[in-house]
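note to self — DONT lose this again. spent like an hour looking for the file last time. sequence + predicted structure for the chain T wanted, 259 res
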Amino acid sequence: MAYKVKIDIFEGPFDLLVYLIENAEMSIYDIQVAEITSQYLTYVERMQDADVAIATEFMVLAAALIEIKSKMLLPRSTPIEEGVVEEDPRTELVEKILEYKKFKAAAELLESYEDKKTLCFEKPKEALEPYTNEADEYLLLDIKQFVSAFNLFLRKKQRIEEVRKHYTRVERQKQSIEMKIQHIIGFLKNHRLKKVFFKELLAKESNKYDVVLTFTSMLQMMREKLIRVEQQRAFGDLEIEMVPPDEEEAMVIGEWDDN
């Protein structure tokens, strides 16, 4: 059984390495190996001074960092040929760090799921027959009867799909304010421009949309001086009357005179 070392917030050598890289605000793809190696060895020495048993994995990573540092300090023995790119000594370390971060993120996600799951409580299953006085029913079918019932189900489903291909559900197109205004004008002209009640403008099967649209259209017509609306008492029905053309012109002229 391996001994798992956890120092403060560091759990394993790569946890310490990732912390040093992120704390130095370095890019994982451009690690300053000399600086990181120095800081890593400093932390390892502090662990030894505190009489903490250092796991072998910490020392192995320290040796790997020193090896990478030495490779980067050594001059190239041969010039790089044209079109040939020399491999970066840090490539393998970067791949291991990325893999570590991926698994660490997955572990943190699973841990959060575990915390949420601990807050959920499930009721164990229990038999309800003592309360319903109904025993479980089992279908006694042989294989031929089962196949026959399943084929019947498939044929019914196929017929439903065929019907749906030939029929579509058509929704009634909703009217606009302009269309409703023309309808109100035609309704008033049919009543010889006499007063009508608001409820007369509504169809018997009007829904909330029709009621709101009719009321909004009425307000727009009042704004355009096309109709005159009166209410004899609070919460009473609205009386709507068409404004004659000559009176409409007089109202407009009167407004110009007031200005």
